[in-house]
Specification:
The complex is a heterodimer of chains A (144) and B (301). By secondary structure, chain A is α+β, with helices and mostly antiparallel strands. Chain A is 17% helix and 42% strand. Classes of the chains: A alpha+beta (144), B mainly alpha (301).
Chain lengths: 144, 301
C-alpha cells in the first residue's frame, strides 16, 4: 500500500509543477516588458521534446490585434528550460515575424509590431531544435 | 487490493481537484454544486469556444486609445457601484461582473486608485455571489491599486482573475455565466468609447468603433451557444439591433508586405497590409445611440 502512495505522489507532484508556472513568475514576466508597455495577456507554454522525425510540437494561440496599435511580444524563459523558445506571429497562414532567425541564429526578444489591420492573428510558440521546454510569452500594448 | 487502489486513487484525485474557497455570503438563489450540474448542450465545442473567447479584444485597448487622444478621465462614463447589493440573480451578477471589469480597466489606465477600490469591492461581491470569489485576489489587487507599485502587476492579476473565473465557469457547466460576463465587458467597453465619440469627433475613434463589428460577431457566437438560457436570449435580442447596424459597416483591405525597421534599439515590424473601415456619421450615431440604450437597459436594477 505504501508503495502505491509513493508511486502516485510523484505523479501528481510533477503535474502540479509543470502544468503551470507560479503566478509570481508570470507576474514578474508581465512587469518586465518595459516602462512604455502595458501588459495585455500571457501565453504559458510547456512542451515535450519532439520524437525523432516528428514535427516539433507547437503551441498556438489566437488573438485580436487592433489597427494603429503597437504591440510588444516578449518571451520569458526560465533558466531551467532545456529548449530556447521561439515566438512566431502569423496573419492567417502568412508568417509576419519570427523571434528567431534559423539561418543567422539571431534572436529578437522582445519585438514590436505596428498593427495596421484589425483582425485575428495567431501566435505560435515552439522550442529551437524541437527540444523540450517551458516559457511564458507576453503580449503588451506600447504607448505611442 | 484493486478496491483499495481505486479508493486511494479517487481520494487523491478528489484532494487535488478541490478548490480553496473563502467565506461566502449566501446568495439569493439555491446553489447547485458544480459537480451535479448536468453538462450544457453546446452547439460548438469547448475548444472552439475557447478560441472565440480569446478573439474578443481587451477593453483596456479602448481605454488606452481614449487616453491617448487626450480625453480627460470622467466618472460619468462608469457604471455605478451603488446598487451592487441589488444585483441578486446569477444573470445580473455575471453580467455586471463583466461591466465592472471593463470599468476597472478604464480606471487602471487612468491610474485612479481611489475609485478602483469601489470597483474592486463590487467585483469581489459579485464574484462571491456566483461562487467564483476564490479566483479574485481582492487583497492583492487592493494593495497594488493603492500602492501603485506596478500597473503591470495590477493588470496581470486583474486579467488573470477574470480568465480564471471565466475558465472555471465554462469547465463547470456554467458557461452561460461566463458568456454573460464577456458580453458585459464588451458592452461596457463599447459604451465607454461611444460616449467619448459622441462628445469628441475623432477619425481613429470612429474607425475603432466600426472595427468592433468583428468583436460583436464573436460575442454573438459565444452567446448563441447558450441561447437556451432565457437571460442569455434576452441579451442576444438586445444585441441583435446593434448587430444590424454593424452589418452595414464595411471593412476593406489594402494588400502590402510587412517591413522590419529598427526603432530605439528594438526591432519593429511595420504591417503594410491595412484595414479600412467605412462608417458614415449616420451609422456611427445609430451605433452610439443603440449602445447607450442596450447598456443602460442591461445594467438597470
Amino acid at each position: 500500500m505504501k508503495r502505491i502512495i509513493l508511486i502516485l505522489f510523484p505523479v501528481f507532484f510533477t503535474f502540479q509543477i509543470y502544468s503551470q508556472f507560479s503566478p509570481g513568475f508570470v507576474e514578474q514576466c508581465a512587469t518586465n516588458s518595459g516602462k512604455d508597455a502595458t501588459y495585455l495577456k500571457d501565453f504559458q507554454v510547456v512542451l515535450n521534446a519532439a520524437l525523432p522525425e516528428q514535427v516539433p510540437p507547437i503551441a498556438r494561440y489566437p488573438l485580436v490585434l487592433s489597427k494603429n496599435n503597437i504591440y510588444r511580444f516578449s518571451l520569458c524563459t526560465p533558466e531551467d528550460s532545456p529548449g530556447k523558445a521561439i515566438l512566431q506571429l502569423f496573419d492567417s497562414n502568412q508568417l509576419i515575424f519570427s523571434s528567431y532567425n534559423k539561418e543567422t541564429g539571431e534572436e529578437y526578444n522582445p519585438f514590436n509590431f505596428l498593427c495596421q489591420k484589425t483582425g485575428i492573428y495567431h501566435v505560435f510558440i515552439s522550442f529551437q531544435e524541437g527540444k523540450e521546454g517551458h516559457t511564458v510569452g507576453i503580449l503588451s500594448f506600447v504607448s505611442k | 487490493m484493486l478496491r483499495q487502489t481505486t479508493i486511494l486513487f479517487l481520494t487523491v484525485l478528489f484532494l487535488f481537484s478541490c478548490q480553496s474557497r473563502k467565506g461566502k455570503e449566501s446568495g439569493t438563489e439555491f446553489e447547485v454544486p458544480d459537480s451535479v450540474i448536468t453538462a450544457e448542450a453546446l452547439t460548438i465545442s469547448n475548444e472552439a469556444l475557447e478560441e472565440i473567447v480569446q478573439n474578443v479584444s481587451s477593453p483596456i485597448e479602448m481605454a488606452a486609445l481614449i487616453k491617448e487622444i487626450g480625453v480627460p478621465f470622467s466618472t460619468k462614463y462608469l457604471a455605478t457601484t451603488d446598487y451592487v447589493d441589488r444585483y441578486n440573480t446569477s444573470f445580473k451578477m455575471a453580467y455586471s461582473l463583466g461591466v465592472f471589469g471593463a470599468d476597472l480597466g478604464y480606471l487602471n489606465i487612468y491610474d485612479k486608485s481611489n475609485q478602483v477600490i469601489d470597483f474592486l469591492t463590487a467585483i469581489n461581491k459579485l464574484a462571491d455571489g456566483i461562487k467564483v470569489g476564490q479566483f479574485f485576489d481582492f487583497e492583492t489587487l487592493k494593495r497594488l491599486a493603492t500602492s501603485r507599485e506596478s500597473i503591470d502587476s495590477l493588470m496581470y492579476i486583474s486579467v488573470n482573475s477574470f480568465n480564471n473565473m471565466d475558465s472555471y465557469l465554462r469547465d463547470n457547466n456554467r458557461g452561460h455565466l461566463s458568456a454573460l460576463m464577456i458580453a458585459g465587458t464588451w458592452v461596457e467597453g463599447m459604451y465607454l468609447v461611444t460616449q467619448v465619440a459622441s462628445e469628441k469627433s475623432n477619425p481613429e475613434l470612429s474607425e475603432r468603433i466600426g472595427e468592433q463589428k468583428i468583436n460583436l460577431n464573436n460575442i454573438m457566437l459565444i452567446l448563441d451557444n447558450y441561447k437556451e438560457h432565457e437571460q442569455v436570449m434576452k441579451v442576444i435580442e438586445s444585441l441583435d439591433g446593434l448587430k444590424e447596424e454593424f452589418d452595414k459597416v464595411e471593412i476593406t483591405y489594402v494588400i502590402g508586405e510587412p517591413e522590419t525597421v529598427e526603432q530605439g534599439g528594438m526591432i519593429m515590424i511595420v504591417q503594410n497590409e491595412k484595414s479600412v473601415v467605412n462608417i458614415s456619421d449616420e451609422q456611427l450615431n445609430k451605433i452610439i445611440s443603440k449602445t447607450k440604450q442596450i447598456r443602460n437597459k442591461l445594467i438597470s436594477v
